[in-house]
Amino acid sequence: MKAVAQRLAGTLVVAFIVLVTGCGSSRVVLPFALDLTALTPPRDPAGFTSNEDAVRGIAAIMGRELGLPLPARFTVFIYSGRAGFERGLVEDAHVAPMRAAELSEFAVGIGKRRLLLLNDEGSTARGREWLRLIAHELAHVSQIEMAEGEGRAEQWLAEGMAEWVAFAVLERLSLDTIANRRAVATRGIRNHAALVAARLDLETLGNPRGFTVRHLREGSLPTYQLAFLMADYLITRDGFERVVEYFRSCERRRDRYANFRDTFGQGLEDFEQEVLAHLKRVVR
């Protein structure tokens, strides 16, 4: 009984609901109330016997070890297939139907304001890529909480930082390392169109629609790898705490260019030239 009480003190799962929404598909709703100070960051995913455990453990790592703020309450929706995921984007996240259809074509997870929507596609609570997906989208929930709204930060940095956080979580669970993912990403972007053209175009990559268009045109994996490497460069150069402060600045002022300049000490155009030179060096 004491163990149960201690567990509930760390995370209270208010409800567990499974709704059948169509032939062969289901929707699981997990509302969470978190007290991060009462959670112990896990070191082994073997203890994850359910998706609740996985979300709770990842939240503990993000909040206690990476210093990322998370909302005290948020809801996780898990769908068993693409059709259910698309329907959930419309009904649960209030995404426009056309946008939901587009997103469900390539995305298996979406983080919104205090909402996490995931398409499990048969994944298990201990699978490495499933845990990476949860961490990536939970990082978006944190970013949106800091900025107090969606789409206020540079999209390439939001995606790149979410990937960095996901890899940091996997590293703490002894499932992967940031260094390994950095090496894989470096190989993956060697022939990326942006490097070949010597123009990253952060103006386009900085807004959600432009980022979507770019990765649909140039490939999802290399575009996310490019975003990760740019965020990784910024984190290595200025520190993870500075990147967190950048997202906080997006709540105080809605000027994407000024927020970047004031946080990192240079404008987007200057950073683009600097990081482009860095990427050219590392892919050789």
What is shown here, in short?
The chain has helices at 2-10, 51-65, 82-91, 97-106, 128-147, 155-172, 178-188, 193-196, 202-205, 208-218, 220-238, 240-252, 256-264, 268-283, and strands at residues 11-13, 17-22, 25-34, 73-79, 109-112, 115-119. By secondary structure, it is an alpha+beta fold. The chain folds into 2 domains: 1-150, no CATH class; 153-284, no CATH class.
What does the largest sheet look like? 6 strands, mixed
Mean pLDDT over the full residue set: 89
Order of helices and strands: HEEEHEHHEEHHHHHHHHHH
Please tally the β strands and state the result.
6
Provide the gyration radius in Å: 19 Å
Number of helical stretches of at least 4 residues: 14
Structural class: alpha+beta
Shape: globular
Give the percentage of residues in beta strands.
5-15%
What is the helix fraction of residues, given as a range?
A: 55-70%
Low-confidence stretches: 1-23
Distance between the termini: 59 Å
Oligomer: single chain
Number of domains: 2
Question: Which key features would you list for this structure?
Answer:
284 residues, alpha+beta, 6-stranded mixed beta sheet, 14 helices, 60% helix, 12% strand, disordered N terminus
